[in-house]
Amino acid sequence: xxxxxxxxxxxxxxxxxxxxxxxxxxxxxxxxxxxxxxxxxxxxxxxxxxxxxxxxxxxxxxxxxxxxxxxxxxxxxxxxxxxxxxxxxxxxxxxxxxxxxxxxxxxxxxxxxxxxxxxxxxxxxxxxxxxxxxxxxxxxxxxxxxxxxxxxxxxxxxxxxxxxxxxxxxxxxxxxxxxxxxxxxxxxxxxxxxxxxxxxxxxxxxxxxxxxxxxxxxxxxxxxxxxxxxxxxxxxxxxxxxxxxxxxxxxxxxxxxxxxxxxxxxxxxxxxxxxxxxxxxxxxxxxxxx
Length: 290
What we know:
By secondary structure, the protein is of the alpha/beta class. It has a single domain (4-223), classed as Aldolase class I (TIM Barrel). The chain has helices at residues 21-34, 53-67, 82-95, 112-125, 136-139, 145-151, 167-176, 191-196, 211-222, 226-242, 250-258, 275-287, and strands at residues 4-8, 38-41, 73-76, 99-103, 130-134, 157-162, 182-185, 201-204. An eight-stranded parallel beta barrel has the order 1-2-3-4-5-6-7-8, surrounded by four helices. α1 (21-34) crosses α2, α3 (82-95) packs parallel to α4 and α11 (250-258) crosses α12. It is globular, with a radius of gyration of 18 Å. The mean pLDDT is 97.
């Protein structure tokens, strides 16, 4: 089981919005040095919605090949088409991903039965560890805890990224799921409390710009050290807010560019961070010592 800080990695791009492969390797080196536990490739933060299928699979393959076992790769392979989710998950498994992250199908708004059958079909089709991803704020689809508990009984569904920010729901999952089923936060502001309650880590946007502090906060929280984790988390709190002043990953890509780590590329329909927010993001970086 992967525990700790899993970065929801951005996909760096050139000004013409083509993928910056050298920039991707620089980011992977950053996380290798900073103590990040795993790389989350081509999820929401990685602009999976606007990468082509070929680009999507290539980002996963390059992450796996470059890391060469030094860090596990959790590949985003979800789709609102069950067939496409199976195809992407197969490609990630062939590339050597340690696990796949599958978001609830968006836009077509399946029922709880449909959600169960969707994830069950992917799990049956591809023999790779799979992590569910519930983020109703972006998908307008909310997978209930009862559905998650049913899915947790399937052998290769090994965890969930709960991005609801609802700690009561997270605690309920921790209480009801077997110990081998990982409960990850997908909400940076509430991640520490979920881990202290028995969660297994944080799939984090903030870790892009503060990988070492996020890794340390997760380590301390996993050890049950509330005082130590809180001290680190207080440094991260301004970032946890500022990186969502516009839709993710707009602010975090601007922050990484401001830090000199990536170029200015972002793919339409997303646009660069509005000038009215740049001082706020820059101040949060400074407050965190970055």
